[in-house]
Automatic annotation (TrEMBL):
Short name of one Pfam family: FTCD_C
Coiled coil segments of this chain: 47-74
Superkingdom of the organism of origin: Bacteria
Record bears the keyword Coiled coil: yes
Domain spans labelled Cyclodeaminase/cyclohydrolase: 5-182
Keyword Cytoplasm among record annotations: no
Protein name (database record): Formiminotetrahydrofolate cyclodeaminase
Gene Ontology MF terms: catalytic activity
InterPro entries (alphabetical): Cyclodeamin/CycHdrlase, Formintransfe-cycloase-like_sf
Amino acid sequence: MVDTTFIDKLASADPTPGGGGACAYCGALAAALGSMVGNLTVGKPKYAQVEERVKETLGELEALRVRLLELIDEDARAFAPLAAAYGMPRSTPEELAERDAALQSALVGATEAPLAIMNACVRVIELCDVMAHDGSRLAVSDAGVAAAFARAALMGASLNVYINAKSLADASAADAYRAQADALIAEYAAKAQATFDYVAQEVR
Protein backbone atom coordinates (compact mmCIF):
# COMPACT_ATOMS: atom_id res chain seq x y z
CA MET A 1 0.00 0.00 0.00
CA VAL A 2 1.39 3.41 -0.97
CA ASP A 3 1.38 6.04 1.77
CA THR A 4 -0.48 8.97 0.20
CA THR A 5 -0.14 11.36 3.17
CA PHE A 6 2.27 13.69 1.42
CA ILE A 7 0.54 13.74 -1.95
CA ASP A 8 -2.89 14.20 -0.35
CA LYS A 9 -1.57 17.18 1.61
CA LEU A 10 0.05 18.53 -1.54
CA ALA A 11 -3.29 18.37 -3.35
CA SER A 12 -5.14 20.19 -0.57
CA ALA A 13 -5.79 23.92 -0.20
CA ASP A 14 -3.02 24.11 2.40
CA PRO A 15 -0.16 26.16 0.91
CA THR A 16 2.44 23.80 2.39
CA PRO A 17 3.80 21.58 1.13
CA GLY A 18 3.89 23.41 -2.17
CA GLY A 19 6.12 23.50 -5.21
CA GLY A 20 9.32 23.61 -3.20
CA GLY A 21 8.38 20.60 -1.11
CA ALA A 22 7.27 18.74 -4.22
CA CYS A 23 10.66 19.42 -5.82
CA ALA A 24 12.49 18.18 -2.73
CA TYR A 25 10.35 15.03 -2.78
CA CYS A 26 11.03 14.55 -6.49
CA GLY A 27 14.76 14.92 -5.81
CA ALA A 28 14.51 12.34 -3.03
CA LEU A 29 12.78 9.96 -5.45
CA ALA A 30 15.65 10.48 -7.88
CA ALA A 31 18.18 9.67 -5.17
CA ALA A 32 16.19 6.59 -4.17
CA LEU A 33 16.07 5.31 -7.75
CA GLY A 34 19.81 5.86 -8.08
CA SER A 35 20.28 3.85 -4.89
CA MET A 36 18.16 1.04 -6.31
CA VAL A 37 20.46 0.81 -9.31
CA GLY A 38 23.47 0.69 -7.03
CA ASN A 39 21.97 -1.96 -4.77
CA LEU A 40 21.25 -4.11 -7.83
CA THR A 41 24.90 -3.73 -8.84
CA VAL A 42 26.82 -4.38 -5.61
CA GLY A 43 27.80 -7.99 -5.09
CA LYS A 44 27.55 -8.97 -8.75
CA PRO A 45 30.84 -10.43 -10.07
CA LYS A 46 30.25 -8.75 -13.42
CA TYR A 47 30.62 -5.32 -11.75
CA ALA A 48 33.49 -6.12 -9.36
CA GLN A 49 35.74 -3.50 -10.93
CA VAL A 50 33.32 -0.67 -10.15
CA GLU A 51 31.93 -2.02 -6.88
CA GLU A 52 33.86 0.30 -4.57
CA ARG A 53 32.85 3.36 -6.56
CA VAL A 54 29.23 2.21 -6.58
CA LYS A 55 29.33 1.64 -2.82
CA GLU A 56 30.65 5.17 -2.26
CA THR A 57 27.95 6.53 -4.53
CA LEU A 58 25.32 4.62 -2.58
CA GLY A 59 26.48 6.26 0.64
CA GLU A 60 26.18 9.72 -0.88
CA LEU A 61 22.79 8.99 -2.40
CA GLU A 62 21.44 7.83 0.94
CA ALA A 63 22.61 11.03 2.62
CA LEU A 64 21.10 13.13 -0.17
CA ARG A 65 17.79 11.30 0.07
CA VAL A 66 17.63 12.05 3.79
CA ARG A 67 18.63 15.67 3.20
CA LEU A 68 16.01 16.23 0.50
CA LEU A 69 13.28 14.80 2.71
CA GLU A 70 14.41 17.20 5.45
CA LEU A 71 14.19 20.04 2.94
CA ILE A 72 10.47 19.36 2.45
CA ASP A 73 9.89 20.52 6.02
CA GLU A 74 12.53 23.24 5.83
CA ASP A 75 10.84 24.71 2.77
CA ALA A 76 7.47 24.68 4.55
CA ARG A 77 8.99 26.34 7.63
CA ALA A 78 10.59 29.01 5.44
CA PHE A 79 7.23 29.78 3.82
CA ALA A 80 5.32 30.14 7.10
CA PRO A 81 6.71 33.58 8.07
CA LEU A 82 6.22 34.79 4.51
CA ALA A 83 2.56 33.79 4.57
CA ALA A 84 2.18 35.44 7.98
CA ALA A 85 3.78 38.65 6.70
CA TYR A 86 1.41 38.82 3.72
CA GLY A 87 -1.47 38.61 6.19
CA MET A 88 -0.29 41.47 8.39
CA PRO A 89 -2.46 44.63 8.59
CA ARG A 90 -1.55 47.52 6.30
CA SER A 91 -4.09 50.23 6.99
CA THR A 92 -1.57 52.77 8.35
CA PRO A 93 1.91 53.84 7.26
CA GLU A 94 3.31 52.24 10.41
CA GLU A 95 1.59 48.96 9.70
CA LEU A 96 2.75 49.05 6.11
CA ALA A 97 6.33 49.61 7.20
CA GLU A 98 6.15 46.77 9.72
CA ARG A 99 4.62 44.47 7.13
CA ASP A 100 7.26 45.33 4.55
CA ALA A 101 10.07 44.68 7.03
CA ALA A 102 8.58 41.31 7.92
CA LEU A 103 8.16 40.44 4.24
CA GLN A 104 11.73 41.31 3.36
CA SER A 105 13.06 39.24 6.24
CA ALA A 106 10.87 36.26 5.35
CA LEU A 107 11.77 36.44 1.65
CA VAL A 108 15.39 35.61 2.41
CA GLY A 109 14.54 32.26 3.97
CA ALA A 110 11.90 31.56 1.33
CA THR A 111 14.55 32.06 -1.37
CA GLU A 112 17.34 30.14 0.33
CA ALA A 113 15.25 27.01 0.96
CA PRO A 114 14.62 26.21 -2.73
CA LEU A 115 18.22 27.14 -3.50
CA ALA A 116 19.27 24.47 -1.01
CA ILE A 117 17.00 22.02 -2.82
CA MET A 118 18.71 22.92 -6.09
CA ASN A 119 22.15 22.36 -4.59
CA ALA A 120 21.16 18.94 -3.31
CA CYS A 121 19.70 18.01 -6.68
CA VAL A 122 22.84 18.88 -8.61
CA ARG A 123 24.78 16.28 -6.64
CA VAL A 124 22.02 13.74 -7.26
CA ILE A 125 22.36 14.49 -10.97
CA GLU A 126 26.11 13.81 -10.85
CA LEU A 127 25.58 10.53 -9.01
CA CYS A 128 22.82 9.40 -11.35
CA ASP A 129 25.37 9.66 -14.14
CA VAL A 130 27.71 7.38 -12.19
CA MET A 131 24.94 4.82 -11.83
CA ALA A 132 23.98 5.13 -15.49
CA HIS A 133 27.51 4.28 -16.60
CA ASP A 134 28.70 1.91 -13.84
CA GLY A 135 25.46 0.37 -12.58
CA SER A 136 23.75 -2.82 -13.60
CA ARG A 137 22.70 -2.82 -17.23
CA LEU A 138 19.44 -4.44 -16.15
CA ALA A 139 18.55 -1.25 -14.25
CA VAL A 140 20.05 1.37 -16.54
CA SER A 141 16.58 2.66 -17.44
CA ASP A 142 16.01 3.45 -13.77
CA ALA A 143 19.17 5.58 -13.74
CA GLY A 144 17.68 7.51 -16.66
CA VAL A 145 14.43 8.03 -14.80
CA ALA A 146 16.41 9.21 -11.78
CA ALA A 147 18.25 11.77 -13.92
CA ALA A 148 14.96 13.01 -15.37
CA PHE A 149 13.42 13.36 -11.91
CA ALA A 150 16.49 15.18 -10.56
CA ARG A 151 16.42 17.58 -13.52
CA ALA A 152 12.72 18.28 -12.97
CA ALA A 153 13.37 18.93 -9.27
CA LEU A 154 16.24 21.29 -10.11
CA MET A 155 14.23 23.27 -12.64
CA GLY A 156 11.13 23.40 -10.48
CA ALA A 157 12.97 24.63 -7.40
CA SER A 158 14.52 27.41 -9.46
CA LEU A 159 11.08 28.92 -10.01
CA ASN A 160 10.67 29.40 -6.26
CA VAL A 161 14.08 31.04 -6.10
CA TYR A 162 13.14 33.43 -8.89
CA ILE A 163 9.67 34.36 -7.65
CA ASN A 164 10.90 35.16 -4.14
CA ALA A 165 14.06 36.94 -5.29
CA LYS A 166 11.88 39.14 -7.50
CA SER A 167 10.18 40.59 -4.42
CA LEU A 168 13.39 41.38 -2.56
CA ALA A 169 14.04 45.08 -2.07
CA ASP A 170 17.78 44.43 -1.97
CA ALA A 171 18.52 44.31 -5.68
CA SER A 172 22.08 43.04 -5.24
CA ALA A 173 20.91 40.15 -3.06
CA ALA A 174 18.17 39.33 -5.57
CA ASP A 175 20.69 39.35 -8.42
CA ALA A 176 23.01 37.08 -6.45
CA TYR A 177 20.25 34.53 -5.83
CA ARG A 178 19.22 34.60 -9.48
CA ALA A 179 22.83 34.21 -10.60
CA GLN A 180 23.28 31.15 -8.40
CA ALA A 181 20.13 29.54 -9.77
CA ASP A 182 21.08 30.43 -13.35
CA ALA A 183 24.53 28.88 -12.95
CA LEU A 184 23.17 25.63 -11.50
CA ILE A 185 20.63 25.30 -14.30
CA ALA A 186 23.15 26.13 -17.02
CA GLU A 187 25.51 23.37 -15.92
CA TYR A 188 23.39 20.68 -14.37
CA ALA A 189 20.20 20.67 -16.42
CA ALA A 190 22.42 19.87 -19.38
CA LYS A 191 24.26 17.17 -17.42
CA ALA A 192 21.01 15.50 -16.41
CA GLN A 193 19.78 15.63 -20.00
CA ALA A 194 23.05 14.11 -21.19
CA THR A 195 22.61 11.22 -18.75
CA PHE A 196 19.04 10.72 -19.89
CA ASP A 197 20.09 10.77 -23.54
CA TYR A 198 22.85 8.25 -22.85
CA VAL A 199 20.37 5.91 -21.16
CA ALA A 200 17.87 6.37 -23.97
CA GLN A 201 20.49 5.23 -26.45
CA GLU A 202 21.40 2.26 -24.26
CA VAL A 203 17.86 0.96 -24.00
CA ARG A 204 16.67 1.53 -27.57
